Amino acid sequence: LRVRSPGRARPVLPEGKERQRKRRRRKKKESKTRLVRSSLLLPEAEPDKSKRTVLACNRLKTTKYTALSFLPKNLFEQFHRLANVYFVFIALLNFVPAVNAFQPELALAPVLFILAVTAIKDLWEDYSRYRSDKEINHMECLVYSRNEKKYISRYWKEVKVGDFVQLRCNEIIPADILLLSSSDPDGLCHIETANLDGETNLKQRQVVRRFLELFTSVIECEKPNNDLSRFRGYIIHKSGKKDGLFKENLLLRGCTIRNTEEVAGIVIYAGHETKALLNNNGPRYKRSKLERQMNADVLWCVLILLIMCLFSAIGHGLWVWQYGEKKKPIFDVPGPDGKYLSPVLASVYLFLTVIIVFQVLIPISLYVSIEIVKICQVYFIHQDKDLYDEETDSQLQCRALNITEDLGQVQFIFSDKTGTLTENKMVFRRCTVSGIEYSHDDNGELMEKDITPDPRLLEKVNECAKHLEVMRSHEQPLTHLSPELCDVFDFFIALTICNTVVVTAPNHKSIHRFGLSTLSTTSTDSTLLKLEEKLAYSAQMNNNGYSSQQGRTAVGGAPEEGELRYEAESPDEAALVYAARAYNCSLVGRLSDQVSVELPHLGTLSFEVLHTLGFDSIRKRMSVVVRHPLTDEINVYTKGADSVVMDLLLPCSSDDPRGKHQKKIRSKTQNYLNLYAVDGLRTLCIAKRVLSKEEYGCWLKAHLEAESSIENREELLFQSALRIEKNLHLLGATGIEDRLQDGVPETIASLRKAGLQIWVLTGDKQETAVNIAYACKLLDHDEEIITLNAESPETCAILLEQCLQCVESKFSNPIDGATGNVTVGFTPLYPPSSSVLSSLGLVIDGRTLAYALEPALEEKFLALAKRCRSVLCCRSTPLQKSMVVKLVRDKLKAMTLAIGDGANDVSMIQVADVGVGISGQEGMQAVMASDFAIPRFRHLEKLLLVHGHWCYSRLANMVLYFFYKNAMFVALLFWYQFYCGFSGSSMIDQWYLIFFNLFFSSLPQLITGVLDKDVPAEVLIAVPQLYKSGQNMEEYQPHMFWMNMIDAMYQSLVCFFIPYFTYYDSEVDIFSWGTPITTIALFTIILHLAIETKTWTFLHWSSCIFSIILFFFVALVYNASCPVCHPPSNPYWTMERLMGDPMFYFTCIISPVVALLPRFLYRTLQGTLFPTQLQLGRQLSKLSPETRTQLLAKLNVKETICQTRLFADSFSPSLGSNASDCYKANNQSTPLPPSPQTRESLFREHTKAEHKTDQTAAASPEGAVLYEENKLPSSASSLERSMGFHEVRCGTSEVESLSVGTTFPWSSAVDQADFSLLKWITSTPLFSHIGTVLQVSSSSLQNETQDSMCVLGPSLHVDFKGLKEENSNNLQDKMKGTPTDHCKNDNSETTFL
């Protein structure tokens, strides 16, 4: 039906459709919010009780299982692993009579064992969670009882939504509670959120408006979510009026009440709906890179298994077919119907049978073994005392248990600066007030609380205070005060009050008031019982619902005895407040609407705080609006980053003398800010604005609307702050030092030697970040820095294109075939290790980075960045940090690690392959989002170079060994099929077959996987280059899998055919022949592991011996107790008879020797003639500590000389100018004399030039030109020299030497004396102790040097035997020649290996 109205046509829907629309609208609204009512309402008064949503109780349950659900649920979870499903399928297949190969019950044993071990592990973990839950659920709190009309003690698990809860000081909050009342007369409550985010500083929470009407009102709030920084809702009163609720009114579960005697509130969210539990995701699970490669090899094993089964099935079909229908062998038994199987059907059955027989090829215990090894690795990492920080009493935490091996394969490190590389403990070092700079150099070795004031500034503060005292006594206006003294006064007032610092006394009680000596003792019991009294009291409440306390005096008694403490949300705020206190301008009390400041000669002044505009990352500033106690003016004090505050200053007129003076002050202040940044200080600008009553009244109206808004409140408050933070008057600026953590430069230098490319992503300004980068050795003074600052995407594209063209054109030179020489130029290979990378660093600001991360430019940006040894991204936002990490991870397919300490690093940490959090000053958000947590940045060195390398090496070798062992054992069964008509029979007893991998050979590989150390920790730290083996995946490459498969095939042939020919034509039964094969296979497998083991301990020897003894013990007991197990052939007394036969012992000795001889010879020859870096590192570890230290020290000295000469040579004649379009061509380059004086002077010039921070790559409309402010021509040749681009040539013979190993290159002539059997044997880890016993005497060290080994290039021959003989003359001889002879290695920083 349609009804037309005169003004507007509107369709009228039928009543049913209109009702459905309203219902959908109501449902949509209800889906976003929830209603909370007081639990004190009588049951009959509860409206629509049947329709109320069931709310969660406060019971904590983190367990996954119950007594009834454990078995089915755990099995269901385990069957999510395809491997477990496969093995259960094989075991069940064995129950089919037509295809079974073993006793069905016995075939189930391995699967049940694996499932049982995993289930027991899961059960233990769940029981631990149950005990923790029980402890928390039985904590007590006070809940108001309607029946008893008082607060009674109840367990946490009994608390419900709508209950009124009372909390006292130092109690933990049991649920998310809306704050209704506080013993604080200003309605404040202080909480500590350490349990939630690790931050120990106190945070203020506020009582809600007009809470007294709540008992008959309804709370409507958002549904439970995990956003800790957001809470939205409102109270709907009976009158229909709404009052907004915000995060300042909510007490979160897990926080602790501090400095407040009593608070009460109503439970909004309980149990698993609280924000704390919604954020608790538990440990993170990732798939490591090695595990992904291992899964691919498992698929290859499946393919090999199918091929073997298919081959056997075809062979069996042909074998059956050759007999025909009339020539059936006597052992071919017909079916129940008297008919024989056709060849095709026999092949199908046989295919399924041999799948059961060959199932061991898929390693059933591999996944469980890896989990056990990783848990043990994590345990030993936790026990490392070097990763414990005594100052913070914290140690390494491993939050992701399954990516420990990824620590040994990291290629890129992305690091935050503040709090990660630095201490995040701020020290006040500089300040400028009214254009005059005051140094505080004496604070360099002091902490934030201990500040030595500048005498000149202190004198001005005292002078200002005296003038103010006189003016106040004579009631004179402050305009009589000079502008400079006014700025000094306002500067320190701003430092004192423009913050959120909480003042506490030594006994941890908050200092809020003066003149009010006692806290209000009004019990919150009476709040609920005496509403009439409270309603009368409400007449004294102001609009915000707080006691107005109009009669309160501003000046009162001093605080309690002892020094006041400041609880700040950031170290910057605390440093500034302590600095102000050093100048006798002390913050002594803070209320919600008042800040008390103690000044010399003036006593305590109380500033009425009208509004606080908090800091945010977009505005980059905070402001307070106060009423000045001396002038009654409304002042806005602003503190923020200079990059934004300087743009908000009131424009100055050049015609006005005062305007000229202000311009001069701003210019001086900007210069000082630049100097502070050069010194690596964190800079802040301080400014103020005086508002007229009309301006304030106009702004206040809009601001109150924004504050009371429920929807879009943040945006409205942001716009309101922008309207008042303008036309500011500059007071001064501060420079705060954030000290580097101990060991940061050394750690970065070591990580870079290890082949890791380090990117620092910081929000600091460019100059500050660059100077910190120099201080921490991220950037070196011998590097040329490419700085990218672009104002538009077009400019950024031009800069990237031109820089890429220059770099690629200068370092992509072909081999000169005519002269037989090679030009060593830039090779853009990954990972970055060439010497050219040592001369380039990239600095990019946040705006340019935003352009560079756009899809059209990201490829060019990445191409340029990966050619630089270090990258520094300044003014970057948290989102940009994560985008940079994701770009490198996805585009380069590189292993990335992100490390940070604050909430702004969480996104970066979560995106990286490995996330590392630092438990620093900015809370625990980064730690909670990380995979690993460390106390200090310096601990990253040992975590990666030692534990990461060990974890990767152990797991890689263990996985390869697993594949080898299973393939070797299955191949024995496969060879036997050629002699049994491919019938799926086995010459190995089924008990041995089932338990061989599960028990007899499993323990040694687990011990090796947990405890093996291919190189000792001290060598891995001293020679960081050894870490590159993990980056290059040298321990586990695809070809190694196939080499192990081939070796397994060969060993199985030896272990099968030697016993075969030994017992050929004898009368032994099948098990008397198969048992020696099993024994030989066990010996071979264990000795194979012994050859591959690098470190031998008591546990290694014990596990190998135990496995052999266990096998013989089981065999003897089993053979003696099983007389009729497999008729007509049975294993009774088989092992007992064999142990009396000498041929059995001979076979068990000769077969493993022949089987392992090729691998043993390969290891010894390769270790002697072509040793890898790791093998040479192990040889280095065998030297005495004194000899090893002397060798490494000598190599470090030579490295320094080599780097110096290479750097000096970078100023020698460069390539003929073949400039690209982005640079002005200059084809003339004057050769510089290669004298030491010239090189030294150039070194000084270059170092001096590096200190200039304004070398930028800018773009002009005509084109971009890379320039330096040294007034030199910007030519291609000069650019090449400044950037270290140079031509390096070497002879053919030298090139041949270069082609040998980069780290421990061997000379072309091999020392024949080392070609001995003793050398071969002692180079094998299993027999390394023989080398210790048979070492040559110390006198051999005095023999003539023989160049069997060259370290750091062919011209620097350092032989272990000639170490003590080399003297200074030899050193000078070896250092002769071109500098490039000494630096042919792929990294100019290479020290050793």
Number of H/I helices? 44
From the spread of the alpha carbons, the general shape counts as: elongated
| Cα separation of the termini | 90 Å
* E-strand count: 41
Radius of gyration: 39 Å
Instruction: Specify the biggest β-sheet.
Output: 9 strands, mixed
- Which percent band covers the strand fraction? 5-15%
**What is the residue-mean pLDDT, rounded to a whole number?**
74
Strand order of the largest sheet: 18-38-37-36-19-31-35-34-32
Strand pairing plus helix content: what structural class? Answer: alpha+beta
Structure, described:
By secondary structure, the protein is α+β, with helices and mostly antiparallel strands. Helix content is 43%, strand content 15%. The protein contains 44 helices and 41 strands. The strands form 10 sheets. A 9-stranded mixed β-sheet has the order 18-38-37-36-19-31-35-34-32, sandwiched between helices. It has a 9-stranded antiparallel β-sheet with strand order 21-20-30-29-28-27-26-25-24, with helices on both faces. It is elongated, with a radius of gyration of 39 Å. The termini are far apart. The N terminus and C terminus are likely disordered.
Give the arrangement of secondary structure elements.
Layout: E1 2-4, E2 9-11, H1 15-32, E3 33-36, H2 70-78, H3 82-93, H4 104-137, E4 140-145, E5 150-155, E6 164-168, E7 176-182, E8 188-192, H5 194-197, E9 202-206, E10 218-222, E11 233-236, E12 242-245, E13 250-251, E14 256-258, E15 262-269, H6 275-278, H7 289-323, H8 343-357, H9 366-382, E16 388-389, E17 394-395, E18 397-398, E19 412-415, E20 422-433, E21 436-439, H10 455-473, H11 483-497, E22 502-504, H12 524-529, H13 531-537, E23 565-567, H14 571-582, E24 586-590, E25 594-599, E26 603-613, E27 621-627, E28 634-640, H15 642-645, H16 657-678, E29 682-691, H17 693-708, H18 713-724, E30 729-740, H19 744-753, E31 757-761, H20 766-775, E32 784-788, H21 793-810, E33 822-824, E34 840-844, H22 846-852, H23 858-865, E35 870-873, H24 878-891, E36 896-900, H25 906-911, E37 914-918, H26 925-928, E38 932-934, H27 939-977, H28 990-1000, H29 1003-1011, H30 1017-1022, H31 1028-1031, H32 1038-1062, H33 1070-1092, H34 1098-1120, H35 1134-1138, H36 1142-1169, H37 1173-1181, H38 1185-1209, H39 1236-1250, E39 1257-1260, E40 1263-1266, H40 1276-1283, ...
Parallel strand pairs: 19-31, 19-36, 31-35, 32-34, 34-35, 36-37, 37-38
Antiparallel strand pairs: 1-2, 3-10, 4-5, 4-6, 6-15, 7-13, 7-15, 8-9, 8-14, 10-11, 11-12, 16-17, 18-38, 20-21, 20-30, 22-23, 24-25, 25-26, 26-27, 27-28, 28-29, 29-30, 33-41, 39-40
Helix pairs in contact: 2-4, 3-4, 4-28, 7-8, 7-27, 9-27, 9-29, 10-11, 11-14, 16-20, 17-18, 19-27, 21-23, 27-29, 27-32, 27-33, 29-34, 32-33, 32-36, 33-36, 38-39
